[in-house]
């Protein structure tokens, strides 16, 4: 059997090069799904603590932490105990911990887990900004999140990699169809059969193969197969 060679940030982690694994770890930042925070420490204290662990010199630490807090948009909460933070701000602080030391490779597990839609969008914007000058490996159960953040995707089932490629490649290869949600105005809360047919006709004009899959009050959900399945 031939041994494979694996690299992280240019460092051999196969175990055959002395110091390869140690040097690779210095280039990695990790944001776990469960926030690694101490409730009684403020955001500033937390980042300073991990900054010292990363070896940032004391004379540079305060300025470094302040700059990172601004980038995380945590300035209004920087000196409050982390235990009082909202779920979104806790995720931001956890991402800040992973970014300390400016790692070349960043691993993020379930970036926006438990967030409301607005906080999720802000987290996505933050990750997009920090990914411009580093490699980011993201695990998520949300296809929407993967599409928003990733240039290349892989899908794993029971621990095995099933496919890999760009978002468009995976969609064109494996997608069976699309779901289209049509939200009617507030005045149409009780849709009669004729009104449903009218709305359906409008959608079918643009999507000839669309079929009404569900109806819940003002929400009409249509399914349309992909071109490949047609």
Which helices and strands appear, and what pairs or packs with what?
Elements: E1 7-8, E2 11-12, H1 20-25, E3 28-31, H2 43-53, H3 58-71, H4 87-99, E4 105-109, H5 117-130, E5 135-139, H6 143-149, E6 153-157, E7 160-165, H7 167-174, E8 177-183, H8 193-206, E9 211-216, E10 219-225
The third-level CATH topology of the largest domain is Rossmann fold
Instruction: Write out the strand line-up for the largest beta sheet, numbering strands in chain order.
Output: 3-4-5
**What global shape is seen?**
flat
Helix content: 25-40%
GO molecular function: ABC-type transporter activity; ATP binding; ATP hydrolysis activity; lipid transporter activity
Protein name: ABC transporter domain-containing protein
Organism: Proboscia inermis
Keywords: Repeat, Transport
